[in-house]
Structure formats: structure tokens, C-alpha cells
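Ops channel
N.P.: pipeline sanity check, posting one input/output pair.
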């Protein structure tokens, strides 16, 4: 999730755990700080943009390592504020703040390596968009009220309510995702599409409009479904995956890494003499955030010494009006 959401979650968890055992501003402040610490891995240069992508949300998001780190962090905070008698409570607060960060990240589609060092599997439920105001606002309001009232019972209750509402919103996202998945599979079968794998994720900033990607053989199909659509049907557009290029580039490290990290939701295409690989999970046709140039191809493909990131986002001026109208159930074709 975005940094504001993680700070808000950290502050709310810190306040809820510490209660009146310390000044509420301390619990909120350290909760917000600890809630952002795992994302400092973005400052690490792993040598090339593909490594930077697939190694984000790795060790700093692993539950095992965060559990170990929570002990010295809590001890340092307790010493700093002269509250050593409460260090166990500080430890519980910091542990909860740290581990809820990657657990929240795992609800997005990106991929979070929760189980390191035992497994590098990238967990990604994909039921919430990385920025969703309906998740974040209850946390900000609740924690803000608690700080403003200096730990008054009503403020603490508001903070708890914010946590309950934001968690309920995550549960709603999972339920909506399952409903759209059922509709997607029914629609695919009705159109004679035998999908090898199906991805269902919300579009930007909401949980009403969902994007479906179905990989089938040499191609993939993209469709959109709003929970406000008049009929439970999804129309799909088909695109090529570039499987011929995949045969030429199967030994290229960057291609292997993106293929594994995206769980097979990727495409290859030739743009002039360059061969590009895109992670199909983040973006929509033809705009993908994680697109990399991995090879030069004339008579044959030659891997680049250093991959180049070329990711692009949907044009906001065209994309946002379409997004809101489509989310409200208007049957519009996606902008291209």
C-alpha cells in the first residue's frame, strides 16, 4: 500500500495497543514511523531495475525478520522515553505495527515475500488497489481524533472504530473479488475461452470496478466488470503474449524473474529493434507500470547488458473520467 496508508495503519495500531499506558502522541508517532520503516528498502540499489522490482518487499517485509527487529526497536523507544517498565507493551505495539505493514501489502497484487528466509514466494491477494481512500480515511480519522483528544475514551474508541472499518473494507474487497472471479470464469466459458490462469484485481482508487486478465495459450484476454453493471457478463479483448519471443529469451535472467514474479501474467513484444517485457498485473492495456527493455532483436534477440524500465501509466485526463463512469456501470470501452 501507499506510504500514507501504512503510516495511518501504524499510528492506529500503535494507539490501540498502547492505550493510556503512554501519551497518545508517542504511540501514534512511533506507530507511524515503524509503519513506514519496511518500505525503506526502495532506497537499496540491487544493480538493475528488474532486480529492484522483484526484490522490493523482500527481507524488510518478512515476518520473521520484522519480529526480530521489533525487540531492539521497542527497547530503544522505551529507553528514550524513560518508560522501561512498559517495554513489553512497547514491544507488542511495535511488533504489531511492523507485521501489519507486510500483511496489508500482501492484500495488493504486487507480491510480498512474507516467509523469508524460509520461502521467497511473493504473496499477493490482489483484492485492494495500492491507493484506496476508503481504506485509509477511517484510519486517519480515528487516529487523528485520538491524538486530538489526548487519549480521551471517545478518541480511543474512534481509533478502534477506524481499525474495524478499514479491516472490514479489506474483507469486503476479498468478497467482491470472489464474486467477480465467478462472473469472469462463467463469461470466459460462455465465450469458449479456456484460460490457463485468471487474475481479478480492482482498478485505481476503488473497489467497484474490477479488471480481469485471463491467460490462454499464446494470448491473454482483458475485461472489466463493475459491481453496478446491469448484467453479470464480461466482454473480453484478446492480445498476443509474444510466445515466439519467449522461446528466444527463455535464458535471459530478467525475463525469468519477471515471469516468476508475475506468476505467469506477463507479455513480450517487439518495439522497433527492442524487446519489451511487461507485468500484466499492474496497469491496463496498453499501459503497464512495469515494462522493461530486455533485448535488442534484429536477426536474433541479444540480451541487453542492463535492462531499461519504460513503464507508462494511463493518461489521467482520459483515464479518470472513463474510470468513474465505468465504475458506475456505464458500458464504455476502455481508453486505448
Amino acid at each position: 500500500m501507499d506510504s500514507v496508508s501504512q503510516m495511518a495503519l501504524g499510528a492506529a495500531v500503535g494507539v490501540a495497543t498502547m492505550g493510556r499506558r503512554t501519551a497518545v502522541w508517542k504511540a501514534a508517532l512511533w506507530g507511524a514511523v515503524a509503519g513506514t520503516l519496511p518500505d525503506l528498502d526502495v532506497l537499496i540499489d540491487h544493480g538493475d531495475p528488474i532486480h529492484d522490482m522483484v526484490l522490493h518487499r523482500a527481507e524488510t517485509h518478512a515476518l520473521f525478520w520484522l519480529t526480530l527487529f521489533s525487540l531492539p526497536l521497542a527497547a530503544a523507544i522505551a529507553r528514550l522515553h524513560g518508560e522501561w517498565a512498559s517495554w513489553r507493551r512497547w514491544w507488542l505495539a511495535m511488533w504489531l505495527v511492523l507485521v501489519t505493514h507486510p500483511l496489508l501489502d500482501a492484500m495488493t497484487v504486487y507480491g510480498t515475500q512474507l516467509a523469508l528466509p524460509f520461502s521467497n514466494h511473493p504473496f499477493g491477494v490482489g483484492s485492494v488497489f495500492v491507493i484506496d481512500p476508503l481504506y485509509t480515511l477511517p484510519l486517519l480519522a480515528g487516529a487523528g481524533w485520538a491524538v486530538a483528544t489526548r487519549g480521551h475514551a471517545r478518541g480511543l474508541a474512534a481509533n478502534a472504530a477506524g481499525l474495524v472499518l478499514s479491516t472490514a473494507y479489506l474483507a469486503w474487497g476479498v468478497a467482491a473479488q470472489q464474486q467477480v472471479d465467478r462472473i469472469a470464469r462463467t463469461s470466459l466459458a460462455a465465450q469458449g475461452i479456456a484460460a490457463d490462469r485468471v487474475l481479478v484485481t480492482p482498478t485505481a482508487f476503488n473497489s467497484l470496478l474490477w479488471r480481469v486478465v485471463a491467460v490462454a495459450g499464446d494470448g491473454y484476454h482483458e475485461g472489466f466488470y463493475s459491481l453496478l453493471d446491469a448484467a453479470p457478463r464480461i466482454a473480453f479483448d484478446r492480445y498476443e503474449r509474444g510466445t515466439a519471443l519467449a522461446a528466444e529469451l527463455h535464458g535471459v535472467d530478467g525475463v525469468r524473474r519477471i515471469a516468476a514474479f508475475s506468476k505467469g501474467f506477463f507479455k513480450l513484444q517487439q518495439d522497433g529493434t527492442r524487446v519489451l517485457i511487461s507485468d500484466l498485473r499492474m496497469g491496463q492495456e496498453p499501459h503497464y507500470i512495469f515494462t522493461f527493455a530486455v533485448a535488442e532483436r534484429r536477426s536474433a534477440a541479444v540480451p541487453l547488458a542492463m535492462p531499461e524500465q519504460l513503464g507508462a501509466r494511463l493518461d489521467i485526463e482520459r483515464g479518470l473520467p472513463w474510470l468513474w463512469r465505468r465504475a458506475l456501470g456505464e458500458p464504455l470501452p476502455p481508453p486505448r
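N.P.: looks fine end to end. Strands lie at 197-202, 209-216, 219-226, 236-240, 266-271, 274-279, 283-284, 287-288, 291-297, 301-309.
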